[in-house]
Fold:
Amino acid sequence: MYKTNDLILRTTTSLIAFILLGFAIYLLLAGHNSPGGGFVGGLMTSGAVLLMYMSYGIEAVNKMLPINFVTLIPIGLAIAVATGAGSFLFDVPFMSQTFGYFTVPIFGEIELATAMLFDLGVYFTVVGVMITIILTIGNDQ
Amino acid sequence: MNEREILEFIAVLLILLGSILSVISAYGIVRFPDVYTRSHAATKSSTLSVLLTLSGAFFYFWISESFFSVRILLGILFVFITAPVAGHLIIRAAYRSKVKLSEITIEDELHEVLHEEDKEFIHKDVLEKEDREKILRNEDKQK
Structure:
């Protein structure tokens, strides 16, 4: 057997994974006015994490990212249900959404919508489902 | 032609150059004899063609619609970093699964390096095995 030497793959992964994660956050935040949203952002994040799993191996990444990805699924679903049920507090139908304009120090005046919180729930669920599926298949060997 | 039209013309020229290069790359993939030279055609020239096309699109949107697309810049950076690494990994996998080189190849220096490494590893394994057997025999004697 050859001793494996993945120096090029690992060095590139440590650079690429950051670009992928940043782009995933961008897609998650930009979903309201341009293509993107929770689903694509979640897929992209899981792609970055899977790239790290491919180049570093399962045990090393489990040490680097001590997250149990199965628990992300109920967290995301709970966020989505909570944003839907939160509209009862204001005496409006289920899953109503609203938005407002706020002034933030760096960005100036921006529009913040409650649909963003629902997208965050979708994001967590998609990340949890994707990584759970692939790790369950990969651990069988 | 005013200034804006000239800049748009340069952007369109970049896209044309990129598409010509991608045709050349596809022609190289068909014409070259083995997997290594084909990958040489597939990674280098198609990476350059994608980069030229993307930068042409970037300049076009910047000039004609004054839209500064960060996504296209990120895409240029991303393709520039990942495409050579993908080519490297594919060719490495091909070499290690012993895909034959074409008959016009003159020299294969990597073969000797890998072969020597292989011998050393076998040697080490044999030594460890003998050591293990000796230890086992000693334990049997003590019992």
Q: What stands out?
A: The mean pLDDT of chain B is 85. Helices of chain B lie at 3-31, 35-64, 70-96, 109-142. Residues 1-99 of chain B form one domain. DSSP finds four helices and no strands in chain B.
